[in-house]
Amino acid sequence: MLNEKPTVSVILPTYNRAHLVGRAIQSVLDQMYQDFEIIVVDDGSGDNTEEIINGFTDTRIRYVKHQKNKGGSAARNTGIKLAKGKYIAFQDSDDEWLPDKLEKQMKAFKKASDEVGVVYTGFHRIKDGITYYVPSDDITKKEGNIHDILLYGNFVTTQVAVVNAECFKKVGMFDESLPRLQDWELWLRISKYYNFSCIDEPLVKSFYQEDSISSNPVALNTAYKLILKKHFQDFSKDKNVLAHYYFVMGQQLYLNGKKKGWNTYYLDAIKVNPYNIRLLVDIFRSFFDHN
């Protein structure tokens, strides 16, 4: 029976993933926690995605389709607007949830104070047969006020997070102008106002796909540039962080065949943090690699 007021809305954007999306949906349906709806947002697929979705008879699944491809952020935002739940969860069409994921997250929310806006879990990233655990032990602060540590880089991917819907009313939804790192940028905004709670165990399997936008290095460099501009006041408080991203952006430009401009970012990195020996060594090595 369809629940008109589910506690959790699970948003699943998909684009030409007919061969994978069924597995992702089934992993949600197999959750021990069952008070949810699934909103599948088809971002203009040209394959038989709709046929695969229609093969599921569970009435908690809603299917909507964009007439043209708008990107993952637009698809997630469409889902957020349609969501009925107090909490918003995200699943990717090529990943799997473990059966106890939602149950553990909702128990965490029940115990948490109103200051907690996001409960996220660890996950296994699987690429070329090798499995990595995220967040690694290098992350020194995984919950509470994690805004400052998030400035160093993202360790909360969308499909591991459950978000109180009030967060979106406070800070807005995904930034559709970003070609990559949209989740990181959203967490940077949310973490200014809300705490994060971490279930530090792998409850999601994330599979690397070669044709994913997340594998596009040119889009990565563009995203860094836009995010640094949008959150410059925060990044500029830590010269190590700011210099690091200038270095990365210069390196990305060169590695992707852009022979001009990369050295400008290197100079910016040195100007920001001229006494960082490690940075200078990295730039020195990179310069000789380029030549």
How would you characterize this protein structure?
This protein has 291 residues and is of the alpha/beta class. The chain has two domains: 8-213, Alpha-Beta Complex (Spore Coat Polysaccharide Biosynthesis Protein SpsA, Chain A); 238-290. Helices cover 41% and strands 20% of the residues. The protein is built from twelve helices and nine strands. It has helices spanning 18-29, 49-54, 72-82, 101-111, 147-150, 166-171, 182-190, 217-230, 232-235, 239-255, 262-272, 277-290, and strands spanning 8-14, 36-42, 61-65, 87-90, 96-97, 116-127, 130-134, 161-164, 195-207. Strands 1, 2, 3, 4, 5, 6, 7, 8 and 9 form a nine-stranded mixed sheet that branches. Strand 1 (8-14), helix 1 (18-29) and strand 2 form a beta-alpha-beta unit. Helix 8 packs antiparallel against helix 10 (239-255), helix 10 (239-255) runs antiparallel to helix 11 (262-272) and helix 10 runs parallel beside helix 12. The longest helix is centred in the C-terminal third of the chain and has 17 residues, at 239-255. The protein is globular and about 60 Å long. The model has no long low-confidence stretch (mean pLDDT 92). It comes from Methanosarcina barkeri MS. Residues 9-139 form the Glycosyltransferase 2-like domain.
Instruction: Give the class from helix and strand content and strand pairing.
Output: alpha/beta
- How many H/I helical runs? 12
Q: Which regions contain 5 or more consecutive residues with pLDDT less than 50?
A: none
Q: Give the class-level CATH name of the largest domain.
A: Alpha Beta
Protein name: Beta-1,3-glucosyltransferase
Keywords: Transferase
GO molecular function, one term: hexosyltransferase activity
InterPro entries: Glyco_trans_2-like, Nucleotide-diphossugar_trans
